[in-house]
Amino acid sequence: MKVYDVIVVGAGHAGCEAALAAARLGASTAVLTLKPDHIAQMSCNPAVGGISKGQVVREIDALGGFQGIAAEAAAIQFRMLNRTKGPAVWSPRAQCDKSVYRRAMKLLLERNENIDILQCEVTGFILDGGRIAGVVNQFGEKIPGRSVVLTTGTFLAGKLHYGLCSFPGGRAGDFPASHLSSALRDQLGLVTGRLKTGTPPRILKKSIDFSNLQRQDSETAQEEFCFWSEDCRPALPRAARRNLACHMLYTTEETARIVRDNLDKSPMYSGVIRGIGTRYCPSFEDKVVRFPQHPRHLLFLEPEGAETDEYYLNGFSSSLPVEVQRKMVHSLPGLEHAVISRYAYAIEYDYLPPAQMERTLRNRRYENLFTAGQINGTSGYEEAAAQGLIAGFNAARSVLGREPVAPGRDSSYIGVMLDDLTTKEIVEPYRLFTSRAEYRLSLRQDNADLRLCPFAWRNGLLPEEKYREFEAYRKSFSELLTAVRERRYRGRPLLSLMKEMEGDVHAELPFPAELLPEWDPESRASRQVLVESIYDGYLQREEKEIQRRETLENTAIPADVDYEHLQGLCSEARQKLIKLRPATLGQAARIDGVTPVDTALLQVAIKRGEKA
Fold it and tell me: Domain range spanning residue 490?
């Protein structure tokens, strides 16, 4: 049997990016999946991006990843969210053709010479001392590997709930990975928890009355997810039709009454479901119970693809029985006679509480085991793909004998997520928001390449042709930014005067055009400079704050610090530090319950070289 450098278990959004990242570093990689036809399946929402998530997709793209490239190939609608606010929180979002997205990612894996796709169920591990030496599948075959990345999604002991009826499953139509969940506990001695998520019903287009629904069309955008020219992109399947409309509608008082009358049939409210659901993407019955003051709730009807007539009813996730779901759907305007092609359901699954891993996604107990996606307690395709990229990259580095690395929270939303996962108690599925990033003025979707391409190039994630394109753009942007900072009109820098353009790149320049002959409203460098003009003073203050905190961020905490006997720590801080084992003082300072006094005590102890 071939010995692989990296074995990736699972082929969802995390698994795909993990395999592709490992392969970019030259690692021979095996992708083990229950069903190859379901690689990169969009199990829930047929979209990529959104608030903060769009920033993450652009960061994945800047790191050489492929989610943004596949999303653009599959896009049937594109919108830039938050345009009524400042560009610091603008977020790209694409409605995708689920079938095209899946085929595009599968093709990327299949055509990569360093990747083999194998259909099997992983049931256990090969152990060699304190290391994992490979995995065992349901046939009893041993697949040896030098490192392992687990990207199991919702499949670990997955259970589907339709009212009080429940069935084993990783998602509707797919069986779960129950043996692997047991192996994590019994073979590896890891602690598992239980989480819950859900999905709404799908509706047949021919049964929808669109006449009174509010139409939401695609936007014309100069930029989407991908920074690269066509020369730097692989040839992929593309959606047959673009710019398909979504539609908005509201629930009714009758919808809420049906839910209230049937809460006793809900597995969530009858105690059948033990897993904790995400607070920020609640089921519809959760909305009715938690927000009784709201007479209605906004929903979106979203097409699932260009060559299918199924629609996704966004915002209507439910675990109620199928007969109740029919009544709920028929109470909605335009859906009085709707045909439900797929019922909503809730799914419970096992995960590994992330206190067991480092922020590089390496397991604390097994140095060649990495985890990414929902197994780490997160939700969302974008969060999963970003973790997959970091986990696969570091798994390949471990084979090369290099220490794992990851971008910081001051340079990326990905870094914010990694930091949060390893410094906070994850008791519900974690989701990224722009509000989680204290440096969000710097972490915009428009400058992800400027922030992360150098990191990607240094660490072998970015091919030379992409880096050449990036360097050419960075040079033109830098030269233009220097020009508007140094040149003046009536005693003021041109950059300061450009604030009067209010972010409109096509607005008339507030100074004679001959002072800036390089200005081109159609160029990305000009658009980037205009954004810089809006936030110039704030960005300078933010950069000073980042530098001020750099000492804490760069001060490593020795792995053998004995918090139990470190004098002066408050009880809560001591417990949290023992459990989470932060890598740096900066991480320690962000742990809930660790006060500035505790951080100062720890800093003094490190300087003195104290171990206990």
Answer: 463-552
**CA nearest 317: which of 335, 329, 307?**
329
Do the Cβ atoms of 503 and 83 come closer than 8 Å? no
442-465: per-residue pLDDT in tens? 999 999 999 999 999 999 999 999
DSSP label at residue 171? B
Give the C-alpha distances (Å, rounded to integers) separating 522 from 401, 420, 504. Answer: 46, 38, 12
Burial of 239 (0-12, 13-18, 19+ CB in 10 A): buried
Of 87, 9, 85, 81, give the one whose Cα is nearest residue 47: 81
Phi-psi region of 367 (alpha: psi -120 to 50; beta: other; left: phi over 0): alpha
- The answer to whether residues 558 and 611 touch, using CB atoms and an 8 Å cutoff, is yes
Listed residue (162, 148, 151, 197) closest to 43, CA to CA: 197
What pairing do the DSSP bridges indicate for beta strands 193-199 and 75-81? unpaired
CA-to-CA distance for 516 and 520, rounded, in angstroms? 9
For the entire predicted model, the pTM comes to: 0.93
Same-domain status, 40 and 55: yes
Give the span between the Cα atoms of 327 and 324, in whole angstroms: 5
User: Are 333 and 373 in a shared domain?
Assistant: no
On whether residue 456 sits in a domain, the answer given is no
Q: What is the pLDDT of residues 294-336, one digit of tens each?
A: 999 999 999 999 999 999 999 999 999 999 999 999 999 999 9
Cα–Cα dist 363/286, whole Å: 34
Query: Could you tell me if 364 and 330 lie in one domain?
Result: no
Q: What is the pLDDT of residues 576-603, one digit of tens each?
A: 888 888 888 888 888 888 888 888 888 8
Instruction: State yes or no: pLDDT of 279 exceeds 90.
Output: no
Give the pLDDT score at 222: 63
Domain count, the chain: 4
Could you give the residue ranges of the DSSP H alpha helices within 404-447?
413-423
3-state SS, 569-585, equals CCHHHHHHHHHHCCCEH
DSSP 67: H
Buried-exposed string 177-214: b where 16+ CB fall within 10 A, e elsewhere: bbebbbbbeebbebebbebbbbbbbbbebebbeeeebe
Q: Are residues 77 and 207 in the same domain?
A: no
Residue with tokens 């942007």: 477
